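My current task is to audit a protein record that another person submitted. Please read both lines and tell me whether the tokens look consistent with the sequence. Do not assume that whoever made the record got everything right. I have pasted the whole thing underneath without changing anything:

===
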Amino acid sequence: MRLTSARLCVGRKYELYSMDWDLQEELRDCLVAAASYGGPIALLRNPWKKEKAASIRPVLEIYSASGMPLASMLWKSGPVVSLGWSAEEELLCVQEDGVVLVYGLHGDFRRHFSMGNEVLQNRVLDARIFHTEFGSGVAILTGAHRFTLSANVGDLKLRRMPEVPGLQSAPSCWTTLCQDRVAHVLLAVGPDLYLLDHAACSAVTLPGLAPGVSSFLQMAVSFTYRHLALFTDTGYIWMGTASLKEKLCEFNCNIRAPPKQMVWCSRPRSKERAVVVAWERRLMVVGDAPESIQYPWRAAKDSYLVPELDGVRIFSRSTHEFLHEVPVASEEIFKIASMAPGALLLEAQKEYEKESQKADEYLREIQELGQLTQAVQQCIEAAGHEHWPDMQKSLLRAASFGKCFLDRFPPDSFVRMCQDLRVLNAVRDYHIGIPLTYSQYKQLTIQVLLDRLVLRRLYPLAIQICEYLRLPEVQGVSRILAHWACYKVQQKDVSDEDVARAINQKLGDTPGVSYSDIAARAYGCGRTELAIKLLEYEPRSGEQVPLLLKMKRSKLALSKAIESGDTDLVFTVLLHLKNELNRGDFFMTLRNQPMALSLYRQFCKHQELETLKDLYNQDDNHQELGSFHIRASYAAEERIEGRVAALQTAADAFYKAKNEFAAKATEDQMRLLRLQRRLEDELGGQFLDLSLHDTVTTLILGGQNKRAEQLARDFRIPDKRLWWLKLTALAHLEDWEELEKFSKSKKSPIGYLPFVEICMKQHNKYEAKKYASRVGPEQKVKALLLVGDVAQAADVAIEHRNEAEMSLVLSHCTGATDGATADKIQRARAQAQKK
């Protein structure tokens, strides 16, 4: 049906579905909530409005937009004041006590939250569900005539709005507005309007409002929250911007009775503004034209209006219709006697099918005006706004016909429209029941539409759409299969093994599907064994382990972590096990997992030394226990007695481990510590914690040669090592006289070349030459070179007839100074070669 009136061009109303739902109650006796974008309809019989509550409990029923039942449940909670759908198609049920119950599309309970203690104490008089860019919100009017709201039920933050001065009764009407990304409340008290924000209550005046208004009876905010309409007791409808700063128009409908419903009906980016007003037996469409569109409405008494992005859905017990402004392209093509390019092209195509020559005449007319491209575009655009497939096909055939006469018309828009219409026709089907328009579909996006099909458990259709549109697997088929699997695990009448096998057969190694997410859903449904079976298909250990820990299957989690080879993952499980098990069970678990035990020991070495000791004791690992006590003697003990005691414990452990060398070495260290303490007491200075060699060296440096020799005898230091220590210490003291005496005390077990080297290191060539003469023949050349006597070194090398020694001397010959020596060596070499 097409409706037009002067400048007001609201358009047409067509039937979406013939409703076959079997309603037990009249719509007027129910709380009704219908979701936008062709969403579901919720009905709850409202016995609480009657003077005496009904003895039977009401039933909450959820239907698709075509009237197909989705859920039905007996209401067992408290009295409900209002119903509404969130943007995610969750049903919000606002109870009288301020508790909001949230249900899924199929009547499954999701969660609940409270609107605060003040709402609980004063009860709820009225409530509104509204939508902002942040999410879906709830606004509450309490019995104390105060407002409380939350702009996002997903992230609940309650705001108590300021009090309206002098408000003694409920406002005649109120609504929520969204300005500057903040939710406000607009309410009417008699002839006055008040705007509540988070800080203040402000009185507002509507610009251009007709005089004589004593009360506002109804308010309506547009779908986009940009425009506002108010119905007054004088029968006037004021329309303006939601900011209340600009008036768009005002209309006198000459009806003073308050309307049952009032909603906006406008198309995005359209300059037309219209409001649909419904009374008991009349529907009126008003706008900025002097006349309205009125017609008797037999079903008005039991009908409901649902505002949409580009129109209004109207459903009753028998029908579901859509009223909207005719899009420009459709109006241009279908208006009477239209000469628009699209209209001519449509006629040309029809005549072509009849094999009439008029097709050529229409086509030539379009081409002469140079409007063939525009005509094709008009037909494509108009096809998108048609609801019936036959009309869509007719317009698309006309567009395809026109394209044949264009050289460079890009096919993308035509192909895309064909795809979009095929998707829209599929979801508009009666059994699916999502009557989206083209504008709504584009605003909603294909991803959200797929989500809504998944919510309705229409997995095959969603997958077909993904495959048809060739969406990437991660965004399309994989995501839908994952949702299907999450639904599958909730079917408790099927065995765990069958469910796991079915899911694996269907999903396989599909990219983008996480078996751990599906297993988490199974665990959330109380099916732990199914979750474990599903985790077997998860290739990523990092995803398996956290869920196994959450399920308290820590030992299995440890095995999986070890299999992964990820040490960080193993440490995570170990720390969890440590907190979960008692000490004995924890250690026994570690004994069965050598890799985990080794890693835990490494952790304990740095963090928990006492635990490390307990581990060694439990395993009777005396070797490591001895090493632990040795480290502990230095790290933890400062007193010499405590250190010696710890070393004694270490020695005992080494004996038990049959490591006599380590035990003897530990006992020697104990003797050294006692001796160092005695030396500190008798001589002063710092001896503790020095090594044996450093202790001997310190004694020599302090002039305690006899004590040093006694210490060497006590600890069986070899003569060679003692001579090296004494040589180094005396040279460091530059006590050359004592060093000479020491060299002559007996034959040096290390030879005399070290004496030469030490003296030259201290830059004392004089002393070095004393010992060079005493160096044995095999090291004589090296000693002479060290003291710089190249000539004598050459003589010795020639005498020894040693090629290596002669080469060494030659390498030390420099410049003219040693030229004669070098010649001498060369001659000796030549003679040796002749022989």
Summary: Confidence is low (pLDDT under 50) at residues 1-8. Residues 660-683 form the longest helix (24 residues). Residues 335-584 form one domain. The chain has 33 helices and 29 strands.
